[in-house]
Fold 6-phospho-beta-glucosidase.
Amino acid sequence: MVIENDFLWGGAMAANQCEGAYLEDGKGMSPMDILPCVQCGRKEAMYHPGIAMEKDYEYYPSHEGIDFYHRYQEDIALLAEMGIKAFRTSISWARIFPNGDEVLPNELGLQFYDNLFDECLKYKIEPIVTICHFDTPLSLTMKYGGWADRRVIEFYLAYCEVLFKRYEKKVKYWMTFNEINMITHIPFFGGGVMIREDEKANQITYQAAHHQLVASALATKLARTINEKMQVGCMLAAGSFYPYSCNPQDVWQAIEKNQDTYLFIDVQVRGKYPSYAQRIWNEKNVTLNMQKGDKEILQANTVDFIAFSYYSSRLTSVDLEFSNNIVDGNAIQTLRNPYLDITQWGRQIDPLGLRITMNELYDRYQKPLFVVENGLGAVDKVEADGSIQDDYRIDYTKKHIEEVKAAMNDGVECLGYLTWGCIDLVSAGTGEMEKRYGFIYVDRDNKGNGTLERKKKKSFVWYKKVIESNGKLL
């Protein structure tokens, strides 16, 4: 398979995991800002945000992140040295509209992203921008209940209009929401939604998701009105579910779980809810409130491409014998697959699963794909000579790139491949720094100690050669 020269090799980060400067230059609070470190009860706070709001924890890693807000010039220069062609980042909504519902944007926030995008373009690096990456302003949660309230659509569109007009000549590729299907799994992160124990979680999260889908369609329409050359995509937390056995019930359960995954992408790509949506709503006691005109909005404003994250495949079974053998599937539960290796943090490693997922997505939608997150979280050791010999990361990335190439050889159209956390950053799930993904090491530990100095890992040199050879030298 010969990869075209315009293939976008690169890396990805998120504002709320790297920028820091959490209240600087007029920025408001975001969900990540109230989530503590792993030792302080991260999971408790993520899944019970009411506790996080009431409790004062000892340490919040995101408050300083890796100080990308002040070090972006150094970091972009390092990425340019590695040769990347595309850099995915997100814009912090609360940096532009601190409370989410102001009439006028924060100019200092806008200027930061002007400077960041200019720095990328100086090195001929294509900015790939996520508009809302688990980053709904905290004030919108407190005032409206986050995306559970339809009024948030209006605030989001005002935010989008500012971004599209300000950066139309600097940013070509946009994604409306990060991992939109995650709102049903981690509603506070996915949509600023807090659910009390006496409330119907499914009703609230699917309604909030509908509001995001309408907002995404209207944002896509807005972008095309402002500049028809801008490309707008959706973004999915992907990874196909396998049946544990050839028991037809296992096969059917895998189909159902994959339908759950694809439900919202069906809407964004095909312009309507799929036929199986009503069954899902019936099973989960959901009565969707769809206003007049919503169907037409969704139908008329489908996306240009499908971006997705891939860390692992998933596994399911109806057999209760296996039901307790659960591991992490990127916030989605999966059974332990006995044929796969597993990371320290419970992520199963399945490179072939990436090819399978890409084929399934492309066969289903016939839209260009974009791998915008893929990577290995691991503990990296700085050797006595200062080097970081992360051969395990090279091996992981090499095998996944091989499967991307194989999928393209299958006929799958793919815009590019972006590794997650190309520079070490704060883990969204655990709040750790020592769960590292990057080709560039950041001197910071889980307790906030360290100089924040950047160091090139062995994988930095390797990835540079991959890009220089356009994927030929792995």
About this structure: The longest strand covers residues 231-238.
